[in-house]
Each structure stands twice: as C-alpha cells, then as structure tokens.
Amino acid sequence: MYDVVVVGARCAGASVATLLARRGHRVALVDRAAFPSDTISSHFLWTQGAARLASWGLLDRLQSRGCNPIPALTFDFGSVVLAGRVPAVLGVSDCFCPRRTVLDTLLVDAAVEAGVEFFDRT
Ligand SMILES: Cc1cc2nc3c(=O)[nH]c(=O)nc-3n(C[C@H](O)[C@H](O)[C@H](O)COP(=O)(O)OP(=O)(O)OC[C@H]3O[C@@H](n4cnc5c(N)ncnc54)[C@H](O)[C@@H]3O)c2cc1C
C-alpha cells in the first residue's frame, strides 16, 4: 500500500515523510509514542533549522503557535560574555525555542496535510 514506511515521527521522520509525500510518494509514518508528547531533548532551533522550516512553508506556522523569534543571544561564562546575532541562513536571522510538543506536532500536521498516513502508538 505504501512506497515508504517511515519509523519515528519527530524532527527527522515527520520531515522526510512530508518531503516524500510532497513529491508524490505514498507514505506511512509510524511512532510508538503518543502525540503530542515530549522527548528527551531541549529545544533550541538555530538559524539553519529555522531556514529549513521557512523553505517548507512552516516557519510562520511555528510563530502562529506562540513560538517567538530570538533575534540575539548571550552566552555568559562568567569571565567571558559573548553576545550578538547569529549569522543569517537563507535570509532567516532568528533562532527559535519551541517545545517539542509544539515542533513535533507541527511537523506531523504538515506530513498529514501532504497526504501522509500517520499512526502513533504504533
Ligand atoms: C538532552 C538532549 C538535549 C538536546 N537539545 C537539543 C537542542 O537544544 N537543539 C537541537 O537541535 N537538538 C537537541 N538535541 C538533539 C535532538 O534532540 C535530536 O537531534 C533530535 O531529536 C533527533 O530527531 P529524530 O527525529 O531523529 O529522533 P527523535 O526525536 O529521537 O525521535 C525518534 C522517534 O522515533 C520513535 N521510534 C524509535 N524507534 C521506534 C520503533 N521501533 N517503532 C516506532 N517508533 C520508534 C521514537 O518513539 C521517537 O518518537 C538534544 C538531545 C538530547 C538528548
């Protein structure tokens, strides 16, 4: 029934499933976890990741789900403080810090929208 079955539906799996479905493949996406859910990870997206989301048409959606841009960073090591902006990637100069419940759900929603059949708890 499927051209591809993707196992794991978070950053990697949901993204690749979306890209394959957008190219016309029949894709199933499975994850043993229930969604939405957290995973063992913090959640900092550098400009590279934000640029990926922008190129897939998903960065505005991330912001509309309450994730605000982070235009500047400060790393405070006590005796040394580094502060500034991260170099832009493909015109995207902001970082983001979405909870994985937000980011992973957004990616799964995009996959389903692209025609992927999604099965969690699987
Ligand atoms: C403590 C920690 C902090 C981190 N902080 C950051 C950060 O701030 N910024 C950043 O960019 N990266 C961070 N990372 C790295 C980031 O979490 C990973 O690179 C990213 O989650 C990998 O995404 P993934 O989709 O490949 O895998 P995962 O997010 O691990 O998802 C894999 C999914 O596959 C499912 N799965 C696995 N095997 C099966 C199976 N047999 N059947 C069904 N489902 C299955 C799991 O349930 C899971 O949902 C951190 C990682 C850790 C551990």
How does this model look, in words?
The structure is a single chain. With 122 residues, the chain is an alpha/beta fold. It has two domains: 1-41 and 99-122, FAD/NAD(P)-binding domain, CATH 3.50.50; 44-98, no CATH class. The chain has four helices and five strands. The chain has helices spanning 11-22, 47-55, 59-64, 100-113; strands at residues 4-7, 27-30, 73-76, 81-84, 117-119. The strands form two sheets. Strands 1-2-5 form a three-stranded parallel β-sheet, with helices on one face. The longest helix is centred in the last third of the chain and has 14 residues, at 100-113. The protein is elongated. The model has no long low-confidence stretch (mean pLDDT 97). Flavin-adenine dinucleotide binds at residues 7-8, 10-13, 30-33, 39-44.
